[in-house]
Amino acid sequence: MRNRAANLGDRRFQRTLMALSGSVVSVLGLIAVYLVKLSWPAIREFGLPFFWSTDWDPVKDHFGAGAFIFGTVTSSFLALLIAVPLSISVALFLTELAPRKIAALVAFMVEMLAAIPSVVYGLWGIFFLAPLLRLHVQPFLSRHFGWVFLFQGPPYGIGMFAAALILAIMVTPTITAICREVFRAVPETQREAALGLGATKWETIQLAVVKSSWSGIFGASILGLGRALGETMAVTMLIGNRNEISASLFAPGQTMASVIANEYAEAESSTHIAALAYVGLALFIVSFVTNFIARRIVLRLQGGASR
Amino acid sequence: MKTELGNLGNDGLLRPLKQGDNFSRLDFRRTVKNRVMLGLLGLASLVAILPLLFILYYVIHRGIAGLSIRFFTQLPKPVGETGGGLGNAVLGTLILVGLGSIIGVPVGVASGVYLAEYRRSKYANVLRSAVELLAGVPSIILGIFAYALIVVPMKGFSALAGSIALAVILIPTVAKTTEEVLKLVPDHIREAGLALGLPRWKVILRIVVYGSRSGILTGVMLGVARISGESAPLLFTALNSQYWPHGLLNPISSLPVQIYTYAISPFDEWTQLAWTGSMVLVLFVLVANLSMRALIYQKGSGGKTK
Amino acid sequence: MRFLCIFTALLSISILPPRATQAGDALTLNGAGATFPYPLYSKWFSEYRKIDPSVEINYQSIGSGGGIRQLLENTIDFGASDSPMKDEQLAKAKTPLFHFPMVMGAVVLTYNLPGVHQPIKLSPELLADLFLGKIFYWNDPKIVALNPEITLPDVPVMIVHRSDGSGTTSIFTDYLAKVSPEWKSRVGSGTAVKWPLGIGGKGNEGVTGFVKNSPGALGYIELLYAEKNNLQVAHLKNAAGVFVKPEAKSITAAASGFLREMPKDFRVSITNAPGSGAYPISAFTYLLVYRNLGDGKSVDAKTEKLKRFIAWALTEGQKLAASLYYAPLPESLSAKVRMQLKEIGSKELVK
User: Fold this and answer.
1) In CATH, which of 3.40.1080.20, 3.40.190.10, 1.10.357.10, 3.40.50.2300 is domain C106-282?
2) Complex ipTM value
3) Burial B17-48 (b: 16+ CB within 10 A, else e)
């Protein structure tokens, strides 16, 4: 008798949990449904060529998201180019080198970077980072590396370069945190073995820690990529907002998230709004896929570690 | 893990010795390289935390001038009049975040409990993916979503719509930390509870969840600190207001949106409010995080050390 | 558990209606739209609160396009826009919608030319050429011809435009399309256009920032931003062939030039206005109001309050405009607009 009552309670409990958590699944589904619904006119009108056409002309009501996709991809990858080596180094410093107290302090400060609101990053970027780039960094780069197409053009401060830098700062905590977990999961015996073979500390890090963590680092980077792709406010305030593809890193650009923030409120024609929702749908799918891949990699690692 | 120790020897650094190797020189080079690379790692850590110091310094530097009791108790003044504060935005943020937590925390905790306690069920896998993916949805898209779902049908911007958008951001954070915290509870504790004849739900609620309450609370607070800085999802949902909040079905002011509006205005008084607002927001997030750490630290050192 | 207590306490504070005395049972009106008049509107609404404490008017600057869209979605009580609504937009409204011009403003051309202290002069043709990317250097013969007394530097022209959709852009491109056939066919006019060249700044502030910091820059912003940032402003040749400085007087003159041909619903562009004193890139900024917000039968308190406010803004409110660099409406126009107030709400006369 008692058993059945308990089972009933258990079932009820599980049902309650499922009902509550079911809203997570349904919200995700609803987001997808609503985005498709909002962007349907644009999907019908522009179809798939929307993604490589770079013609974004609100007056003639013709839209293509090529420039934003380029901007999103470029700014995110540039950010990763900076953030991944940095995050690996920080994570190594924290797990392998730093004394406990220092490690705790540094880890806390890095994590705090993730807690700073996006709009504050934007403000700081405009008033501090952009002038710094315009007056010092960019003139220096174009003076010494001006022959590379990447560093040509007038230094505005604001542009792809600034956006990538702020993104790099913003994704560093994410990548660092996961790299730390990955490095921590490396068995101590492996390090001891390398040291025992006469390796220096650096060689131990290389051989025993980093080498066995590549897939974890990759997963962490993809997760960072996911965060960079969708970042809105700070990028909008810093990227310069030009709907065009340009080779120079100093030139202004536009990302999928920033074009929505820029134009969604002011769009007049319904095609324009649908096109922006279409960009949103694309962004949703891209971040969906990115996160999915990253989770797969990280999960497999965690599964491997616990077994 | 995957790399076996046998692999180590294949690397050039640890190749078998050959005749004619100049050991002392090799050793010297390795030592130098060791020092340099380790130094670089330390330097990288310094580089990584520099932005935080710069941002804190700059925000405080620009914001401190406008800090006074007035900032928390008064409404913003119209252009041309000095004084005024962002009291409505501070209160509005508290309301939005509070209501967002009321909606989001139960769902988040329930999801986390399910993920941890029924982790092998099929639904848990679906739920886990959903939580992870929801965490990755850009917040601007959540804003558009909440606008289409709530604002348009209800015919009006409202605090409620903003709170729901914030709740959607909060849920994955809370769910993930809850799951992780509960996973730390060793299985033998659950088994002990079950062996005493307690039904499973009582074991989960009274023993597992109750025992981990401070960890869960930490996760909640971290999530709350995070959503208190969100502006993108509020732009099209809670909108903004220059008055004190009243009612949940009216537009409401919030610190991040107010900062965004005032930061780009041409008036010095408004820009000052934006900077002070940024400072308050950043310090709030910082203090929330610090106190949570302190709490964990206390627990950690008071109880068993992990 | 102390934290849980604090947390719950915070929550309960936040749910309680705060400052019941201040909020009282005041009626709240929500409006949104144009960014350009935001400073003046927020001043108006706060001043008006002192006159009539029973109404709280909340206005948010989400942009003209946003204002129109939200009004048509019925998510706000009134809208505001820098450019009049199009016919097909008006057709979507369920109850008739009215345009009320409130004040006027100007889009000015601001530039950064080190060493040049006198205001430069620009003609419509030259302006179109500059924004079409046909003139590369500031000392181009065409610019020099208009400004013989100024030594123009040999720096490249850098065009700065708005990146976000904007009523300002709409006014500016409307003017360019009127004066340049090539602009009309190649680019057209609207709140967002496909710019032939240049870089985009977000908001007036973004454009202002770029111009301030980049020698050789030329951008268009609202007068208020130029004045507040002490930027140089070009004098523009108007339809009568006179070079005019943008200021309250010349902006009001632009409306006077259109008085005779003012349509009944005030939906008119006053760019390139006739009259020797008129600044050519001037515009009205409108409040957009439904005939009534209720079912049209019972007394519609919101519309009544809004009506009273508009009447006040058109009389007393106009005096506040000049201090914020907006131009008041010409008296004769203001009277016409007040006449239109009878069309909304119940049919009682407005004092």
Assistant:
1) 3.40.190.10
2) 0.84
3) eeeeeeeeeeeeebeeebeebbebbbebbeeb
